[in-house]
Write a structure and sequence with these properties.
The complex is a heterodimer of chains A (about 350) and B (about 260). By secondary structure, chain A is an all-alpha fold. Chain A contains 14 helices and 2 strands, in the order H-H-H-H-H-E-E-H-H-H-H-H-H-H-H-H. In chain A, a hairpin with a 2-residue loop joins strand 1 (about 150) and strand 2. The radius of gyration of chain B is 19 Å and the shape is globular. Chain B starts with a strand and ends in a 5-residue tail after the last strand. The chains are: A mainly alpha (about 350), B alpha/beta (about 260).
Chain lengths: ~350, ~260
């Protein structure tokens, strides 16, 4: 019998980890400005231009991209499992919309809240991730409540109310965007488009912390996630309490989505594409699928962002455009294929 | 000892009552077939027994109130074979069967050799080992059902609940499954409660039958007590002739259509 064993766990994860490290190195070196690596490394502690670009501009951005790509992929995996729907993703559930709205309200009304704390050393991180987390959690709870009938979660209601909530929130955001002043509007729009940019290491550290926390929490639920994909009844028969699992997944993924949205806006399609490809490659056992998707999501976004940086250099594309460019057609292909097979994957 | 004991059990879906004051005891090691027309409450009764739904009235499992069990404890006591297995993700049959072992190991651990061995024996018993590595959604209805029964066996339960286990099976596999159930019951003392549609099969394999009608127990007893011409006429509104098979000494139904 071919089932998940320790050998496969180690093999897949270490292969992806090596690939991730190589990608990170390559993406740090690639960019509109050519860097002399040996020169930069030699002067790594003095601040020559090359070393500055490498360490202060590119590396934090690459690290941020890895965390966000991995986080998006992991959120996609768990939401798909929870709704037993291979086409679910944070965008469709209104969660990312809620996070955006939370973040925007934070940006408009209390842009500098918490900044004085820790002597300003928290930098730009401020409290926007927290606002986005609250927004994400709020919209998830809302969608959940509207899809819960007699103690049962109805997956179709979740998708429908999620889509509706997302467009409602989009309208609210556009409204807010038209009442704020011009400078703020421009900032909000850029934030919404979804893009990575260079951040201070402290910000990158914060984001990694939130995302790793959420990821580890979700990974520890890997086995239960396997069971919940069989439906709530079957999961109960096999020893899982679905309500408790659902709540934990909502909180953990809201935490991750909030953190991600607060620095990069919502980068589309990573959470849809990566889990799909990984399921095709390594199967659906979430104990392996979660770490593998995290690593693969990191690799994917790392390269997508590098493309975004170099394609129109020295100008820069929002990375959301690159992922949507690949993701849109891919999504249509999936829908077409699933329709033809009339079976979900 | 009673494996399942229900006392004055009622249940309604919102304002639609489904079960009215059911009292039923199933002893450990018994094999009981639940019969009745569509909507008579068979599935609901099984769902209450397995802790999915909560009725009004008392349910005791092995002399302990069902409310006192947590979900993992229930899953080691009961295994359930559902009517329509739904699997939207590409899991292999072997992976599905191994999920029956989930309740026995920690949420982070992988399956042990012992788990694999149990899964293999369970699949062997239900004649499903041949497609262990194929995806579940590629299998036929009958093959899928055998995998689901294998998973239930892998749970090593004391009580097996089945909701129309032969619904998708052809004659051969239908008989094979019921013979397997009978063997498990006799050799290992597994308590079996199954909701059944096929009255003739029920009469052949189940020593005790419970006939539900509109959420009440209409008849409870040996096949010869339950499957009578009058009962079938009262419960299903169908005229039948009952004959006893000379080899098995079990009642069998012959339908007498009103038009012929």
């Amino acid at each position: 019998m071919k089932v998940l064993d320790r050998k496969k766990m180690i093999l897949v994860n270490s292969a992806l980890l090596i690939l991730l490290v190589l990608s990170a190195a390559a993406c740090t070196l690639l960019g509109p400005v050519r860097i002399d690596l040996s020169e930069a490394l030699k002067n790594i502690f003095s601040s020559t231009a090359d070393a500055e670009i490498l360490l202060r501009a590119r590396l934090p951005r690459v690290l941020l991209g890895i965390a966000i790509g991995g986080g998006m992929a992991v959120c996609g995996v768990v939401l798909q499992a929870l709704l037993a729907n291979p086409l679910a993703c944070p965008q469709m559930l209104g969660v990312s919309g809620g996070a955006s709205l939370g973040g925007i309200l934070g940006l408009i009304f209390f842009p500098n809240w918490l900044l004085p704390l820790a002597g300003g050393r928290l930098g730009e991180i401020s409290w926007i991730p927290l606002a986005a987390f609250l927004g994400a959690l709020f919209s998830m709870v809302l969608v959940y409540r509207f899809s819960l009938f007699h103690g049962r979660l109805h997956p179709y209601h979740i998708l429908l109310s999620g889509v509706i909530l997302n467009s409602f929130i989009a309208a609210v955001i556009m409204f807010l965007n038209s009442i704020v002043d011009f400078y703020q509007a421009q900032g909000l729009l850029f934030w919404l488009m979804g893009s990575l940019s260079t951040r201070a290491y402290v910000t990158v550290g914060f984001i990694w912390f939130y995302i790793l926390l959420g990821f580890l929490w979700l990974w520890s639920k890997g086995l239960a996630l396997n069971l919940i994909t069989l439906g709530e009844d079957a999961a109960m028969h096999l020893g899982v309490e679905p309500g408790a699992l659902q709540r934990q997944i909502f909180i953990a993924s809201s935490l991750m989505i909030g953190a991600m949205v607060s620095v990069s806006g919502m980068i589309g399609f990573v959470g849809l594409m990566v889990p799909h490809v990984m399921r095709l490659l390594i199967g659906s056992d979430h104990r392996l699928l979660l770490p593998a998707s995290f690593l693969a999501g990191g690799i994917f976004l790392c390269w997508a962002d590098t493309l975004a940086r170099v394609l129109l250099a020295p100008a820069e594309l929002p990375v959301g455009i690159v992922t949507a460019f690949f993701g849109g057609p891919f999504f249509l292909f999936l829908l077409y294929r699933e329709g033809r097979r009339s079976l979900a994957l | 000892m009673n494996a399942i004991h229900a006392e004055n059990l009622s249940f309604s879906y919102q304002d639609r009552p489904v079960l009215h004051g059911i009292s039923l005891s199933v002893s450990c090691g018994e094999m009981v077939g639940i019969l009745g027309p569509n909507g008579s409450g068979k599935t609901t009764l099984l769902k209450i027994f397995s802790g999915i739904l909560r009725g009004i009235g008392e349910v005791r499992l092995k002399n302990k109130n069902i409310e006192k069990y947590n979900r993992p404890e229930l899953s080691r006591l009961f295994a359930v074979v559902q009517q329509e297995p739904r699997v939207n993700f590409p899991y292999s049959a072997a992976e599905i069967v191994l999920m029956g072992r989930a309740t026995y190991h920690s949420p982070l651990a992988l399956e042990t050799l012992h788990d694999l061995e149990i899964a293999r024996t369970s699949m062997d018993r239900t004649d499903s080992l041949g497609f262990a590595n194929r995806y579940l959604h590629e299998l036929s209805g009958g093959e899928k059902q055998r995998v689901m029964i294998a998973r239930a066996l892998a749970q090593e339960p004391e009580i097996l609940l089945l909701d129309e286990p032969s619904a998708f099976l052809d004659l051969k596999h239908q008989i094979q499954i019921f013979e397997l159930l009978l063997r498990l019951n006799r050799e290992r003392g597994l308590t079996i409660v199954a909701a059944l549609h096929d009255l003739n099969v029920a009469a052949l394999f189940f020593p005790r039958l419970v006939m539900l009608c509109n959420g009440r127990i209409h008849r409870d007893g040996a096949p010869s007590d339950v499957l009578t011409e009058k009962t079938i006429q009262d419960v299903y509104g169908v005229r039948v002739r009952i004959e006893y098979d000379s080899a098995t000494k079990k009642p069998q139904l012959f339908i007498r259509p009103s038009l012929s």
